[in-house]
Specification:
By secondary structure, the protein is mainly α. Helices cover 69% and strands 6% of the residues. The chain has a two-stranded antiparallel sheet with strand order 1-2.
């Protein structure tokens, strides 16, 4: 089988599809968060706190967010009664964060809604097409990351 290069029109159509898919995912995530009275950023922070290895500075760095924005979100989550902050046992300068029972319920609701969407949308797809999509998506992601690295180094 020979490799056929895509036309410019096909490339632009694929980029437009990816943009639409990204927008739909973002909008759906925003809707899910809003249904629980949260912003997407608050949801991400709450999810991360639930892993028990949450460090605000690391979260800010990984998510390309400022430490001040993460601190503000932590205050908002505490004000909503979703998390509690405690002084760390090992270092009095550090704080540890954990979800409250209300925070765990909120995460449980969000996860249930996400699972419902997976069941209705993803599980009805053809397995071969899904595997091909996954392979292609991974390949595209690797190419974009490599291009970004090279561009950043130049």
């Amino acid at each position: 089988m020979t490799h056929q290069e895509p036309t410019a029109a096909e490339i632009h159509e694929a980029i437009a599809c990816l943009r639409r898919l990204t927008e739909v995912f973002s909008e759906r995530r925003r809707q899910l968060a809003l249904a629980e009275g949260l912003s997407e950023h608050q949801w991400r922070v709450l999810e991360e706190i639930s892993t028990e290895h949450f460090m605000p500075s690391m979260f800010a760095r990984r998510r390309e967010s400022s430490p001040a924005a993460v601190s503000k979100t932590l205050r908002q989550l505490a004000d909503k009664g979703l998390i509690v902050a405690r002084v760390a046992r090992t270092d009095g300068r550090q704080r540890t964060y954990e979800p409250t029972s209300k925070g765990r319920r909120t995460l449980s609701h969000l996860r249930a809604r996400r699972e419902e969407a997976i069941e209705h949308v993803w599980q009805t797809l053809d397995a071969r097409q899904l595997r091909a999509f996954t392979r292609f998506s991974n390949q595209l992601t690797e190419r974009l990351q490599e291009y970004a690295r090279r561009s950043h180094e130049a």
